[in-house]
Amino acid sequence: MKHKQSTNTFATTIGSRRHPAYEARARMIPVPPRLDMHPKSKFHLSDEIKLFVNVLRAALREQTLLLFSSRGRLKPELLAIVLIALWPKKLRPTIVLYGEMYEPNPGIRFVVERWLMKLVDRVVARYAVHSRAERNIFANLWGIDPAKIRLAHVFYNSQRHVPAPLDGPADSHIFAGGNSLRDYEPLLAAARQLPGYQFIISTTVLEGRQDLPPNVKTGMVKHDEFVQLMRTAAAVVVPLRRGLRRAAGMLTYMEAMWLKKPVIVSDALAVDEYIQNGETGLVVDGSPEGYVKALRWV
């Protein structure tokens, strides 16, 4: 077996965003492009298997890995860590896990998830979470030593896309999008109270629904169209579920803020760390009445 690379370098699935010092040390682990799309693309098992294998190969070469916590439907990077935890200790790399951490599932699934996280914790030296609010919650929920947890707020990279000419009239609709940890029911109820407003919701969560209000259009779109729908929107709504135990929706509402759109976000965990209510966005209680009041105001 070849000697592992020097500790001056590390293998990672996280892009550098053109940071020279980062690029000088990072050895990129190939990530299938569809797994990096925002909003998330449809499930492709072959992509998830490729990433799983690529992480394992990197683990055999490098002493240190920096991995993303929540990419893909099956979380192939996390599954690779579980397998690495079963290797002899001398073969295991040091791992830093960055990104959105995990919302537990109910019942027996949570028991299994907690057992898997114990395996993950064998090899993860540091966890980088996206909010202060998550640090204690994450530690208590999954049995993680708080000393291993660090804070790394999300930032928006304005070079993620190059703005194209507007396709359609500006300020023509209310836009909402995304699948992860969203609650669209109160927003649909608000749409029923605002028949003069047009709503476009880019998600698969509402597929097959026959009871949508006539002023609501739904369906998943590609990233470029997702951005265009934000750019032509009168406001962008991010309807997060109540009672979350991890941060969510940051990329969507930060992208909308960068596009200088009025942003309305439900008061979920850590939203107040990213949005100054009344200044950079409106934080509402997630009720139909809260959305109606905010939309009428903007």
Strand order of the largest sheet: 2-1-3-4-5-6
- Rg from Cα: 20 Å
Q: Indicate the overall shape.
A: elongated
Structural class: alpha/beta
Structural summary, described in words:
This protein folds into 2 domains: 144 residues, 3-Layer(aba) Sandwich (Rossmann fold); 139 residues, Rossmann fold (3-Layer(aba) Sandwich). Helix content is 32%, strand content 17%. The chain has 9 helices and 12 strands. By secondary structure, the protein is of the alpha/beta class. The strands form 2 sheets. Strands 2-1-3-4-5-6 form a 6-stranded parallel sheet. Strands 9-8-7-10-11-12 form a 6-stranded parallel sheet, with helices on both faces. It is elongated and about 65 Å long. The model has no long low-confidence stretch (mean pLDDT 92).
Quick recap of the structure?
With 298 residues, this protein is an alpha/beta fold. The chain has helices spanning 20-25, 45-61, 76-84, 108-123, 132-142, 185-193, 223-231, 250-258, 288-297; strands at residues 10-12, 26-28, 64-68, 94-98, 124-129, 149-151, 173-177, 199-202, 216-218, 233-238, 263-266, 282-284. It has 2 domains: 10-153, Rossmann fold; 159-297, Glycogen Phosphorylase B (Rossmann fold, 3-Layer(aba) Sandwich), CATH 3.40.50.2000.
